[in-house]
Amino acid sequence: MHSPPPPGQDRDAPGPSPDPDGWWLAAIMNGAFVVLLAGALIRFVDRHPDSGRLPWVIGLSAALAVLQFAGRRPGRRREPLPRRWELARLTALVACWIVVVLLAPSFAWCAVPLIYTGLRSLPTRAAVALVAVLAVLVVIAEVRLADGTDPNLVLLPPAVATLATAVFVHMRRQTGRQQALIDDLIRTRRELAATERREGTLAERQRLSMEIHDSLAQGLSSQRMLLQAADRIWDTEPGTARGHVRTATAVAEQNLAEARRFVHDLAPAALVGQELDDALRALAAHRSEQPGLTVRCHVEGAPVPLPDRTRSALLRIAQGALANTAEHAAAAHATITLTYLDDQVLLDVSDDGRGFDPAAVSPTGVRGHGLPAIRARVRQLGGTLTVESAPGEGTVLSAAVPLEAAP
């Protein structure tokens, strides 16, 4: 389906050439016109050398040749004449041809290239009318040249003109439809590219928000808790308070490394130089050093190599789950369990905190950014997320990721 022409545009306006590289067809038509014109002129000069019409015939032949090539630049890339000049050229060309045919009927078959020129330059209806006039004049000229009555002289020119016109009009319409389809495809491709750019922008924003939440925001939250704990016991337990400050400093250094790698879009700092198992154990040990929460880590099954994308996402999921535990659950103990199965890897994070009602938490994140970010990461890996919890009974978060899902 193609769009209708804009308001004010003639539906029968001349379209593009049937062949995008139609220069060769124009060259053939121009060459045929010159050959027919030269043949008719030679015939007239040979048979009527003393005719008083000879100067007129020679002059009109020269005028026809000049008009046929007027404004035509050599080569394939030729700029067309402005429309008003093209119509003026065609009018002068047809007028000269009519006069020379009345003077010398042998010029009648020069109408064949003129038919092509008219069909290419005029709207369809005007071109058909011009072809009809040219066909009638050719019939008259052929009858004048003939010695007797021949039905072919009356039937052949209209038949040839009708056939040529039908083929050209059909090709023009086919070309118009193809051009409209190409325009639709180009427009659709541009719209699709714009949509992909918008979706890519939104996905990148979501990724950035998750990365910031799972790395920098968690580190800042840990520093705040450590510094608040140090402030409360600074006068009574200065040694313990200094330990909290040193731990906060270590967290700040880790956050700085995360920020630098985050800017360069590299893997999490905890995964540099070690596997996911070691990174989870280091995460559990680091969290246990902070007051109020003890974290253990278990690895079950035979470890298998995981894609970087899966390793990074599972580590972020564990970090986000522990951050939720520390911030919302008021738990004393938490456990990270990484299980390798034949076709998937499971990450479970459980705690003994206050729990909550999962049905009361909307997927869009009424409870904060942590759980929606975890859901998004698991969904990107083609996995499933299960949250089991109840008020007063703790929480178990389980992420199952297929091993073949991540590239």
* Mean pLDDT rating: 77
Q: Using only CA atoms, what is the Rg?
A: 43 Å
Second-tier CATH architecture of the domain at 274-407:
2-Layer Sandwich
Distance between the termini: 39 Å
- Poorly predicted runs are 1-20, 73-77, 364-368
CATH homology superfamily of the domain at 274-407: Histidine kinase-like ATPase, C-terminal domain
**Roughly how much helix do the residues carry, as a percent range?**
55-70%
Counting H and I runs of at least 4 residues, what is the number of helices?
10
Strand order of the largest sheet: 1-2-3-5-4
Shape descriptor reads rod-shaped
CATH classification, class level of the domain at 274-407: Alpha Beta
Q: What is the N-to-C succession of helices and strands? A: HHHHHHHHEHEEHEE
CATH domain topology of the domain at 274-407: Heat Shock Protein 90
Content-based structural category: alpha+beta
Main beta-sheet annotation: 5 strands, mixed
Strand content: 5-15%
Could you tell me the number of beta strands? Answer: 5
Main location: cytoplasm
Organism: Actinacidiphila alni
Catalytic activity: ATP + protein L-histidine = ADP + protein N-phospho-L-histidine
Transmembrane segments: 23-42, 54-71, 91-115, 127-146, 152-171
